[in-house]
Amino acid sequence: MIIFSDKELARRLETIEAMNQVDFAIAHKRRRQDSAAGYKKIGSGYAVFAGVDSPLTQAFALGFDGAVGDGEIAELETFFAEHDSATNIEVSHHADMSLTMTLMDRGFRISEYSNVLLRRLGPGDDFPIASGNEIHQVGGDEITTLAQTVARGFAESEDPAPALVDVMETFFQQANSLCFAATRGGRLAGGGAIFVRDGVAALAGASTLPEFRKLGIQSDLLKTRLKIAAEKGCELAMVTTLPGSLSQRNMEKLGFQVVYARTKFTKAGGQRVKK
Fold this sequence. Notes:
Blueprint: H1 7-31, E1 38-42, E2 45-49, E3 58-60, H2 70-81, E4 87-92, H3 97-105, E5 109-120, E6 133-138, H4 142-155, H5 162-172, E7 177-184, E8 187-197, E9 200-208, H6 217-231, E10 236-241, H7 246-253, E11 257-267
Parallel strand pairs: 9-10
Antiparallel strand pairs: 1-2, 2-3, 4-11, 5-10, 5-11, 6-7, 7-8, 8-9
Helix pairs in contact: 4-5
């Protein structure tokens, strides 16, 4: 069934994305009391700081309450400047055009494009798993091992950067996170998560170790997460990919469709901004 895209759908999804990142900051602060992780409500969205080099340090969901002017963006820049960080903001193409114009006027540059894809979920959906692969939900002490494995999959290295392992461990300990491990022949091969909020399951944090690729594990991780999301009562599954990427094609094969695009804007920071 076709999903029709509009501003209210985009507001719903962007707000969910923003709150998932707020949950990340809260989980990071809970795990590391000395962490500077934090967040701030700005306009219709949120700015999140999770570390200077963290991919989670950015803002989401601005521009859904009408025109956005210098004051709102100055507040955004000040938040990140207080953390000696560049200002990153993901802008939905359904946000008010004034947001993009104000960012450009203030010297922001485009740093990335992405697509948001959705799939409807229902109790009758069938997600068969490939022979030889086993996917199961994990928690507790297993999370640390899972985080290390997923980080290895992303880094394609036996010794991933500690910061990447820390990001994955925080991901898997968020309050709304459900974590899954993939095994084959009794060996841990990969993992991933879903973040459940307001009837939507956001899929993220999934990777497979290089030696286990082309065995259907990534697809089976996705199918299992969709099945569990449907069982949890989610009506939609959401994922973000690079435009035209292999990830996008794989999602489309499983019934996902592009509902809107985002543009990420970045401005180098480090000094407090005057309004």
